């Protein structure tokens, strides 16, 4: 069995301290030790490293009566900039963050879902980043790294899009292609991994340490964390809940199988359900997926009966498919994210909650929460920025000798 | 979020050393440190404790040229006896083990599946243990603990059968009932947790550290381990793969939902499938489930065409349901266990392997193994004995001052 090395443990401890600072805000060394469970000596060492690397700064010094002055530490947002990018079938969405992962700027580029050339997608990514950087008034040279979420099966260590069914990509070396045009380190991963990290750091992860984060868009999937660890699987392919069965021999799915959850809950699946209810419904005229889902939301507002039936059937499919996830994993928390969730949460969430007792075993139902994500902004981009920050800190902590950190230039 | 205490960590380290001894056989302190990744000092402390508690003994001393003599340590099988019990709908199966978990004796009692009184089941458990103890020629007073697997939802810390649908039990305090009649500590858990532990210690866990162990019997379920950790879920209810959907609105399941995997792959589900193929098939006359499955195996040997069709359909259902498990968890290994698996493995395993590529995403298929369990004997009983050994060691390590261990009496 694989064993953690001392190096892994050191990285993990650094992330624990960083994560605690995100959760607690400005903190003393004692508070960090208490929150992380690490020894005061370990925390003191990490804080000293982070201070010398410029990742932390002293926010305040408190003079307690009788005791030593207590330094309260905080992440230095000015240490650099990080870009998180959400690449989907139909768009690229880029956000520039400071080192505290506060949003500085945002850019979006539409992708033609019928174009599948890697250079076309790379160009879209670069343009979205440029727009975000311009929007935030950020200097290119201050960017420490770019994290790019790619749909499909991604191998983050190799920087490869192993398989992206929407573009029929096989083993596209996306990190290499991007690093040719972007003069900074690039980290690629999959959106299901990104949404879990964003939820662990900035969402329900503050309350629970096991969860599923269900992403509803063109495709659907679930990011999973168990006992505080992101589940990646043997080949970083865990979470393909969209390709578990809702109904054996049911609707054809774009993966080639029949009856998958995605064939019912992906945006094209919603369109299929509506066509079953009313093949002549005017909303079906919307050819772009996001326009279609937005039109469904508007029509529900207006009380359209066919769309109400669509919401009802979709809620039932969703409750059944979430029931499978909860029965298998006995997780206490399900969070809904992705643009379909955002557009339809008002109708889906109450209906799903009402249906769940029909699908979840009693022993796993008690205390179960199903909530729309509370993570601000684009959760995929935020999660990718958090991964990129982790990778930056790993390289920083292992590579550079103390004292060599660059002085950041102030933004003009 | 929950943090591990120093006490948890100490227990975990003790289990790591114990587990290494099971994997490696007689080992030096250096080998144990290398295998566990623990520091030599930590290993030395644990070995000293185990020696003083009588859990380990020195197997051999090797004199290396020039170096210190090297002690090779081994678990002392004579330190005591442990009983593992598998309670199912239709039988109780008890095994007595030495401290190395070598089998000493075995006893089995049939249960009438229509009797649901707790005292009836407790009596069956006691009789099976008595039979195993007599079979092994073991003195009652040498038994250190009894581990009892109960079907359904079990809360091991409280010792409670929270819900056993087969008996319609709710919150039956089974540990208390058993400790009234058995003069030793009792540990209760669920078979899905037990089969994973047995597989982690004595089966595929020697090669992989993430796995699903699929248990096919009257009910079906999957024990799951990820990165070397048994997945319990929020309420010890993880692994209810039998109550994930194969087909929305499909066959009624005894859980009250429709279309669950168990309704197709549990022994009564196999009977339903056969009745769909040939409602007058003579095998359907077998009223007891195990007799029915044994008769299916015999009929397959004889080339019965309806039974061949049953094996084919069952293999397809199993491949589809395993596909869901693999797509969601991206585990590299699936092990089949339970009495239906044992009886039908020859027909099911090759057919399932042939079907899997239709159900598993390409990125999760490569390197995936599906194998019948290689764990010897009753895997549920063995896993329960392993849990009980862990619990014994925790109590021993935390409770008794050094030097107070009882001298074991030799068996007559």
Verbal overview:
The structure is a homodimer of 412-residue chains. Helix content of chain A is 42%, strand content 20%. By secondary structure, the first copy, chain A, is of the alpha/beta class. In chain A, the strands form 4 sheets. A 5-stranded mixed sheet of chain A has the order 5-4-3-6-10. Chains A and B meet through strand 12, helix 10 and helix 12 of A and strand 12, helix 10 and helix 12 of B. Chains A, B: Belongs to the ROK (NagC/XylR) family.
**What name goes with the CATH superfamily of the largest domain in chain A?**
ATPase, nucleotide binding domain
What is the CATH architecture assignment of the largest domain in chain A? Answer: 2-Layer Sandwich
Distance between the termini of chain A: 52 Å
What percentage of amino acids of chain A are in beta strands? Answer: 15-25%
Q: Secondary-structure element order of chain A, as H and E?
A: HHHEEEEEHEEEEHEHEEEHHHHEHHEH
Count of beta strands of chain A? 15
Number of helices of chain A: 13
Q: Unreliable segments of chain A (pLDDT under 50, ≥5 consecutive)?
A: 400-409
Kindly report the oligomeric state of this protein.
Answer: homodimer
From the alpha-carbon coordinates, what is the Rg of chain A to the nearest angstrom?
Answer: 22 Å
The biggest sheet of chain A, with number of strands, parallel, antiparallel or mixed sense and barrel status, is:
5 strands, mixed
Tell me the count of domains of chain A.
3
Task: Indicate the CATH topology of the largest domain in chain A.
Answer: Nucleotidyltransferase, domain 5
| CATH classification class of the largest domain in chain A | Alpha Beta
Assign an overall shape of chain A: globular
Helix-and-strand structural type of chain A = alpha/beta
Average per-residue pLDDT of chain A, rounded, comes to 92
Helix content of chain A: 40-55%
